[in-house]
Amino acid sequence: QVQLVESGGGLVQPGGSLRLSCAASGIIFSMNAMGWYRQAPGRQRELVATFTSGGHTIYADSVKGRFTISRDNAKNTVYLQMNNLKAEDTAVYYCNFKNIGTQIMTYWGQGTQVTVSS
């Protein structure tokens, strides 16, 4: 089992910045992937940014150039720096972790609300 603890959401004005954190604990495989998804009201959950098992990063087109994902492997923690936030970034942001072995085991954080509004 893997536990994920998220922090850093909140209310910010358009153009502002927020930094999300997600710390993983428990049984963590050496091969894993970790990243962020989000879900806005009435919409499906979508990928925001993630590290692949090979250490590459993938970003949604809508956040490229504004969001940066980073990772502290020693702390099993992933961060999402969000700059130049827009109203359309408003959503619940979920940390996602995958242990990759003979099968992929997926875990989700509890979610943190990000609201961009003036």
Architecture overview:
The protein is mainly beta. 0% of the residues lie in helices and 57% in strands. Strands 2, 4, 5, 6, 9, 10 and 11 form a seven-stranded mixed β-sheet that branches. The chain has a four-stranded antiparallel β-sheet with strand order 1-3-8-7, with no helix packed on it. A hairpin with a 4-residue loop joins β7 (67-72) and β8 (77-82). The radius of gyration is 14 Å and the shape is elongated. It starts with a strand and ends with a strand.
Number of strands: 11
Helix content bin: under 10%
* Alpha carbon gap, first and last residue: 40 Å
The mean pLDDT is: 95
Give the class from helix and strand content and strand pairing: mainly beta
Low-confidence stretches: none
C-alpha geometry: elongated
How is the main sheet built? 7 strands, mixed
Beta-strand fraction estimate: over 45%
Key features of this structure:
7-stranded mixed beta sheet, 4-stranded antiparallel beta sheet, about 55% strand, elongated
What's the structural blueprint in terms of helices and strands?
Elements: E1 2-7, E2 10-12, E3 18-26, E4 32-39, E5 46-51, E6 57-59, E7 67-72, E8 77-82, E9 91-100, E10 104-108, E11 112-116
Parallel strand pairs: 2-11
Antiparallel strand pairs: 1-3, 3-8, 4-5, 4-9, 5-6, 7-8, 9-10, 9-11
